[in-house]
Design brief:
By secondary structure, the protein is mainly β. It is 5% helix and 42% strand. It has 3 helices and 29 strands. The radius of gyration is 19 Å and the shape is globular.
Length: 349
């Protein structure tokens, strides 16, 4: 196993570094210090051909200008907060809207826009990249100085871990995720239609027109959202169900079933033999199937076409602070936040 550190670019006179963690099986994870972004994951297929299985833009200028969220640490609150506000007892906390009237992915300057400090470690059983940053009190309207640490790990069992930790000096909200997009074919120009997606979930959250969940969960039974046994993504994405067709694909939260030993999510690409399984202690996962093309904003990067990736965002249910029964995303002084998501990679014949 090894760790390599290279210069990825310069922003505001600060060097942004890319760290690549590699094991002896050909699996590697690359992360930059801007946004804690996973720039790429590389793995072999069933013929041992090494290819990128994630999709992203390739230059720092493009990532900063376009803010595509690909592979980034998203927060302090992933997803949308309705009407850019929430209530703490009798006080209404006003946030900064950045998607019409809602606050999306933490607001205009979230965790994905920070240059993080980084320390790499080569341990006996795994490689680690620990990155840290701080969200100042009042940024985008969120109270509290919030110190955040994310630890990426890679081991010889072909597992990539993401360990989130946070502390605050004022009561605030915290619900992070990573926005990595997978395309297990190894060709970012191909759609993910021939991927099979299985989700260990009995309930999903229907959405309003602005993509805010309605105030209740619904059973997946007898709906296109029933992915408990696995479905080809082409069948799901192109389904005529209005919930899906009006969005050109999935952009939906699934409430995870943690009562079994099955993985929370499994994504399979039979042609290449690549499989990724997701295990998480998060309550939910939001699945987004890249429902519009990502054009280059600088004109100097590639285009990522519609449906060329699928992101599996582990988190608590979106807009939980404004939906009673969706769980708590409070972060309070003396009560640190901690969550772990693990991606397990393997190859089948």
């Amino acid at each position: 196993m090894k760790i390599e550190k290279t210069e990825f670019g310069v922003l505001d006179q600060q060097v942004v570094y890319e760290y690549t963690l590699s094991n002896s099986n050909g699996l590697s994870l690359s992360v930059i210090t801007y946004g804690g972004i996973i720039t790429k994951i590389v793995m072999p297929d069933k013929t041992e051909k090494l290819e990128e299985i994630t999709t992203n833009m390739t230059t720092l200028d493009e990532i900063v200008k376009a803010r595509p969220f690909h592979g980034s640490i998203v927060g302090p609150v992933a997803g949308r907060i309705s009407n850019a506000r929430y209530q703490d007892w009798k006080e209404v906390i006003e946030l900064v809207p950045n998607e019409k009237h809602n606050t999306l992915h933490g607001g205009p300057t979230g965790l994905d826009t920070k240059i993080w400090d980084a320390v790499s470690k080569d341990l006996d059983n795994e490689l680690q990249l620990q990155i840290t940053t701080e969200l100042p009190d009042g940024e985008n309207g969120f109270p509290g100085d919030v110190k955040v640490k994310v630890t990426y790990t890679l081991n010889e069992a072909n597992e990539v871990g993401i360990h989130y930790e946070a502390n605050t000096n004022k009561k605030t909200l915290f619900n992070p995720t990573n926005h990595v997009y997978f395309n297990l074919s190894g060709d970012y120009q191909e759609t993910v239609y021939d991927h099979e997606l299985q989700i260990n979930s009995d309930q999903y959250a229907p959405l309003k027109e602005d993509n805010i969940p309605i105030c209740q969960l619904k059973s997946v039974a007898r709906t296109p959202f029933d992915l408990r046994k696995g479905e080809r993504l082409e069948t799901v994405i192109l389904n005529e169900n209005k919930e899906i067709s009006s969005r050109n694909g999935l952009d939906h939260p699934f409430f995870l079933n943690h009562s079994s030993n099955d993985p929370s999510v499994k994504l399979t690409h039979r042609k290449s033999g690549r499989v990724v399984e997701v295990e998480t202690d998060s309550q939910a996962i939001v699945v987004y199937t890249h429902n519009k093309a990502q054009e280059s904003e600088t004109g100097e990067d590639r285009t990522l076409g519609m449906h060329t990736g699928v992101t599996l965002e582990t988190q608590q249910l979106p807009d939980a602070i404004n939906n009673e029964g969706f769980g708590s995303i409070w972060l309070e002084p003396g009560q640190p936040f901690e969550s772990i998501t693990k991606f397990k990679f393997r190859v089948i014949d």
